[in-house]
Amino acid sequence: MTGVDHLDVLGGQSVLEVAEMVAAVLGARTAMGGEPGRIVVTEAPDPALRIVIELAIHDRELPERWARRITITHDRSSGKRRRWTQHLHRALTEHRDWTLTSA
């Protein structure tokens, strides 16, 4: 892999809600069960793209304040990974008015 990008979604959304919105933006699907505690976006338009959504657990914060972490990897190109990260960041802030940070 050529690296990893993270987007943290702040607020009270569920991991499932974030995963479904990411899949909708990409025209993809979600799958649960393959990785405990994580939802994987499948059938993305770019086969080298891998996206996983999970809780970003911070020991010093209350569980309801934990962010939902979107992890983006791309098997072939760090440039493509960055473009997908930017695309997701824009789409999620426009469509849902969510607060996102790059972790």
How would you characterize this protein structure?
With about 100 residues, the protein is α+β, with helices and mostly antiparallel strands. A 6-stranded antiparallel beta sheet has the order 2-3-4-5-1-6, covered by helices on one side. Strand 3 and strand 4 form a beta hairpin. It has 2 helices and 6 strands. The chain is globular, with a radius of gyration of 13 Å. The mean pLDDT is about 85.
Helix and strand layout, with pairings?
Elements: E1 4-10, H1 15-26, E2 29-32, E3 39-42, E4 49-56, E5 67-74, H2 78-96, E6 99-102
Number of strands: 6
**Mean pLDDT reading:** 86
What value does the Rg take, in angstroms?
13 Å
Q: How would a crystallographer describe the biggest sheet?
A: 6 strands, antiparallel
Fraction of residues in helices? 25-40%
The largest sheet has its strands arranged as 2-3-4-5-1-6
What's this entry about, in short?
The protein is built from 2 helices and 6 strands; from the N terminus they run E-H-E-E-E-E-H-E.
Write a concise keyword list for the protein shown above.
2 helices; six-stranded antiparallel β-sheet; alpha+beta; 103 residues; 30% helix; 6 strands
